[in-house]
Design goal:
By secondary structure, the protein is an alpha/beta fold. The protein contains 14 helices and 16 strands.
Length: about 350
């Protein structure tokens, strides 16, 4: 009679191996997520993805650091390498070009300053409102708008343009958020800011020390940011800690007082224009005015400055045209929206002072 087979002894898998086997599919899933996010955001970026959120120089904007303004458009630049694939060309003076053709003849230029709405984010060179204003009036227009600027930076850039070019008219454009930006000492990079001193304002943080060493906290956050997946998770779950408290750093005692600084800035640029015999137009853009922005506008009017409230005009028009917002705005203004802005400004400038 054959002997019964010996019972098979089952090998016990250690806890360490079970943990290892369970981690393999998890790691595979995380790797797939990492690759997918990299492809979606910036497939050719091999640095810290966190810096793309906090450092304007690391993003696909044509910017270079500046000791007075924080940053300015990079001269002699042309590319479509931006968020929207639009043609962005910067001339030798750091001004955005108004298209491929030559500027109209003229002894005096119209200088424009402001933020990304003036610069013309999301549209080609010839579709910004300064470019379309140049065509409408047949006069040379200098587009001195810069993405992300506060009213502080816009006014300082306007002063530089007044000294550099034969300016006949200066248009200062602001969005309500540009007044809030006047409260910051850092926005992507260290920036200039004004403080109150008695009844006047004084410029601080100039010249800007761009070579100041970064904090240790920033260094290790940037290191963690080399993972696109980790950056995406932390940016949506701990946004303030991860980026906002570094990207935008306010001056504590100025919080809530940006609009008061805005009033003083209007007085400052008005004085500079009057000294040179330059016509000044203060423009409020956007799809919704705020009480603070309107207060700055009223203050300008009280000082004899010509103003144009396009935010309120748009709001009134949109009540009777439900499709107007989609036609004029796609984050920033569309070509059609900028054409409307240029038309409204041209009508004002055609009128005598």
């Amino acid at each position: 009679m054959a002997a019964a087979p010996a019972p098979r002894v089952q090998k016990t898998i250690s806890r360490r191996r079970r943990l290892l086997f369970s981690l393999v599919p998890l790691c595979g899933l995380l790797l797939v997520a990492e690759i997918a996010i990299r492809i979606g955001r910036a497939p050719l970026h091999f640095g810290s993805f966190r810096t793309l959120r906090t450092d304007l120089m690391a993003r696909n904007y044509p910017a270079e650091l500046h000791p007075t303004l924080g940053y300015v458009p990079r001269p002699n630049f042309q590319s479509r390498d931006n968020h929207w694939g639009t043609l962005v060309s910067i001339d030798a003076d750091g001004m955005r070009r108004n298209g491929p053709g030559p500027a109209p003849p003229g002894d005096k230029v119209i200088a424009t300053v402001g933020d990304s709405f003036t610069f013309g984010d999301q549209v080609d060179d010839d579709a910004s409102w300064p470019a379309q204003l140049e065509v409408a009036l047949g006069q040379p227009v200098k587009n001195g708008g810069v993405f992300g600027y506060s009213l502080t930076q816009a006014v300082l850039r306007a002063e530089a343009m007044l000294a550099q070019f034969p300016v006949g008219t200066l248009i200062v454009s602001l969005l309500p958020d540009d007044l809030v930006r006047c409260e910051y000492k850092t926005r992507y990079t260290p920036v200039p800011w004004f403080d109150f001193e008695g009844d006047s304002i004084v410029l601080r943080n100039v010249p800007i020390d761009h070579a100041a060493p970064a904090s240790s906290a920033k260094a290790w956050k940037d290191l963690l940011g080399y993972s696109a997946l980790l950056d995406a998770v932390l940016a949506h779950t701990c946004k303030v800690w991860w980026v906002e408290n570094e990207k935008q750093v306010p001056v504590p005692h100025l919080v809530g007082r940006g609009w008061e600084i805005g009033k003083k800035l209007v007085e400052r640029i008005d004085e500079a224009c009057r000294a040179r015999g330059v016509r000044l137009l203060l423009l409020v853009q956007g799809d919704e005015p705020t009480e603070q922005a309107l207060a700055v506008l009223r203050h300008a009017e009280a000082h004899g400055v010509q103003t144009l409230d396009l935010a309120s005009r748009f709001q009134a028009r949109s009540r009777t045209d439900a499709k107007l917002r989609a036609r004029y705005f796609a984050g920033h203004m569309t070509r059609e929206g900028n054409a409307w802005v240029a038309h409204e400004i041209a009508d004002v400038l055609r009128m005598p002072r």
